Amino acid sequence: MRALPQPKPEDFDLATVLHALGDPVRLELLRRLTAEGETTCSPEGVTVPRSTLSNHWRILREAGITSTHISGKTRLVTLRRNELDARFPRLLGAVLDEFTHPSSPPPGASSDPISGGSRTVLRSR
Description:
Layout: H1 14-20, H2 24-36, E1 38-40, H3 50-63, E2 66-71, E3 74-79, H4 81-87, H5 91-100, E4 109-110, E5 121-122
Antiparallel strand pairs: 1-3, 2-3, 4-5
């Protein structure tokens, strides 16, 4: 099986990372990764279509935010927190802190885009 493209930390691009962090579904995936440490590419409770989920994981991986390795027939995804923090200090922490502890509900807020739960996120327009 071919290796998946994953940038080296020195190749991380701020605009690409910010773009990857700019989607509510990807932010929820990151929140889950932060809590769980590692997940499969199809975690439980995810209600978005597999093709959409695959695209979100690809964007996160190609931005350097996550790392995907293959174990048998399973793809395991981990957060590249140390590498991101070294390249862009405090960026990921600030984003995740705001996402998990928002200061106030933003205009246009809706429920969790992945599981339909009560987590506050922005709805796309």
